[in-house]
Amino acid sequence: MNHIRGTDKSLCVGTALVIALVALAAAGTAVPAQAQYSVYSFTGGSGQAKAPSGLLVQGRDGNLYGYSQTGGAKNNGTLYEISIPPGAAPTVLYSFPSRDNCDLGLTLGTDGNFYGGCEQGPGTNLYGYVFQFIPSETGTGTFTILHTFTGQPDGANPSSRPVEGRDGNFYGTTFTGGENGYGLVYRITPTGTLTPLYSFTDDPSLSYPYGPLFLGSNGNLYGTTQAATGPPYPTCTSDCGAVYEITTAGELTRLHTFTGGPLDGATPTHGVIEATNGFYGTTVQGGQYGSGTIFRMGRMGDVTAFSLPPFFYSFANWDYGYPKGLTQASDGNFYGFTNGCKVLDCTDNGSIFDITPEAAFSWVHIFGGPPDDGASPDSTLSHTIGTLYGVTELGGTANDGVLYSLNVAAPEFCRPQVLAGQPGATIGILGQGFSASSSVTIGGATAAITSTEATYITVTVPANAQTGLVTVTTPGSQTLSSLQAFEVLPTITGFSPPSGPVGTPVTISVAGCGTRILMQAMKVTFGGVAAKFTVNSETQITAIVPAGAVTGSIEIMAPGGTAVSANQFTVTH
Question: Given this model, what pLDDT does residue 31 score?
Fold first, then answer.
């Protein structure tokens, strides 16, 4: 089993806009007139970061953080910080003692720390690990290996960066290992306790997960399996890959199996992103010309076929490389990059493309390589200032890679670190121009500011908050809005009686939600044991204390989130 490697790295995961996206259409060649492209070269100096790779992440200070494959004290790669706008050389924060292929991208946790995964190592170990990096204002920070994979039963060779769930834990995948040897989905706490959630089987398409997980608006996780073997041929038979959904409890659902050919894509190596009308992603095979696709998929797994009105785009050739994932900017457009070549002697340097909601496709930039441009792009991030940033592994003045910026005149915005929470919860918001005199609303309700910096602000979710956009109005009267709605989760306000034996009916009152959440309640538990229940109204449920119940919290699980009681229900005998 050989999964596509080399230039096939991490997905440029972006922010799903709260807009209705429309059909994607035929190819064009025009570069948007408003696009302004520039590069900053990694200088290649002694001890400096070289060959940047993987997904960048915006820090609380507004700067960018990333990974380089080489450079640092032992030339085995680094974690680095680069200021925005770029000017000074990147600051090396950590030098890896061995070359561990940690180019899956970084995640900024709600605790302010960075998390990532390495495909191999540490040292001579071949199975990889998950790490935490704690930044420091007075030094370079603290690097900690949270978990070293052993193959079975905990997986081997991470294939996605850890992504933080609503519960504060992190979730990721390994390409191989697990109970069956075909990879797994895992959960890991910020302190390093790892739990395997789901081990993939020898299913010809639903095996070997690759590409980052995406945290959906419902709190579940979405990912792709590569499955296909060998080089990216234009057709495949029974191993074309799949898209799946998995809950944080480990319940996995196959959403779509790719079949290749002219009516479907094949080999989705870079995960999916979510928009309000479904999920979008790319494949490196399949489509009308066999050169890959951009696909749109509904929540139940329906993928729009090519023979219908063109809701997904089919690449005509590999002249500019294979399509490698999508991000969505605050102008409403999808942006992606291509990399890699069809033939061994290809000199392609990669490209950036754009697909608008008005169904127009454009090649935004064709990389020219050294000394004036990058080559082999490996990420694209939408910064809250509205500019797209990314890195290339090669190119630039020293051929040690570049940081590129693409200004498409997209509006500035704010980015909440979490997109769901109960009233009273504290959330952090990334952006710019903040001060203590800023004002913040969540779903139209004013939120109290608990701390503020110029590029990071924390607020308390107000009691009267409704699900809706987060907005920050700066002292300069600029209003920055989130690109996604913040989901106000239900709160259990009380239950009666407070105790009782098995079989006792318990009336549970819930606030902070409406029909869409409570009327779709999926499970009620007492101390973790599932109970039979009846939804009485939008704000009330009656549940029967189940056999085996123990004293503990009452939980109500629904598509919009989980409500947990502040007090325990006491089970008597």
Answer: 43
- Is the pLDDT reported for residue 283 higher than 50? yes
Taking the alpha carbons at both ends of the chain, their separation in whole angstroms is 56
**According to the model, what pLDDT value does residue 559 have?**
61
Contact 241, 226 (CB under 8 A): yes
Whole-number Å distance between alpha carbons of 473 and 449:
12
* CATH code for the domain in which residue 343 is found: 2.130.10.10
Whether the per-residue pLDDT at 224 is higher than 50: the answer is yes
pLDDT at 277 over 50: yes
Instruction: Report yes or no: 205 and 150 within 8 Å, Cβ to Cβ.
Output: no
**Residue 353 located in a structural domain:** yes
User: What CATH number should be reported for the domain holding residue 517?
Assistant: 2.60.40.10
Share of residues in the chain with pLDDT > 90 (%): 57
| Final residue of a structural domain among 459, 488, 517 | 488
Buried b (16+ CB within 10 A) or exposed e, 289-325: ebbbbbbbbebebebbebeeebbbbbbeebebbbbbb
How many other CB atoms are there within 10 angstroms of residue 39's CB atom?
Answer: 20
Identify the H or E element spanning 515. helix 515-518
What mean pLDDT is predicted for residues 448-475? Answer: 95
Q: Which of 439, 454, 488 is the last residue of a domain?
A: 488
3-state helix, strand, coil in the chain (%, to 5): 0, 45, 55
Which region, left, alpha or beta, applies to residue 500 given φ > 0 means left and ψ of -120 to 50 means alpha? left
Confidence class of residue 89 from pLDDT cuts 50, 70 and 90? confident
Number of alpha carbons in the 13 Å side-chain half-sphere of residue 4: 30
> Is a pLDDT exceeding 90 seen at residue 147?
yes
Half-sphere exposure of 99 (CA within 13 A, CB side): 9
DSSP assignment letter at 303: B
pLDDT for residue 72 is more than 50: yes
**Residue 285 domain-assigned (yes or no):** yes
**In the predicted model, what is the mean pLDDT of the chain?**
85
Alpha-carbon distance of 264 to 340, in angstroms, equals 21
Residue labelled with tokens 């390589």: 369
How far is it between the farthest Cα atoms of the chain?
A: 78
Least trusted range by pLDDT, from 135-149, 218-232, 448-462: 218-232
Q: Which two tokens stand for residue 554?
A: 């009452």
- 163 burial level (CB within 10 Å; 0-12, 13-18, 19+): buried
Structure letter (DSSP) for residue 321: -
pLDDT reported for residue 233: 43
Residue 348: name the closest of 324, 366, 371, 362 by CA. Answer: 366
- Are residues 175 and 318 both part of a single domain? yes
Amino acid at 450: T
Q: Which residues make Cβ contacts (< 8 Å) with residue 234, sequence separation at least 6?
A: 260, 285, 286, 289, 290, 291
Range of the domain at 424: 417-488
Query: Same structural domain for residues 527 and 437?
Result: no
CA gap 99, 121 in Å, rounded: 8
Q: For residue 254, name the pLDDT band (cuts at 50, 70, 90).
A: very high
Local confidence band at 306 (pLDDT 50, 70, 90 cut-offs)? very low
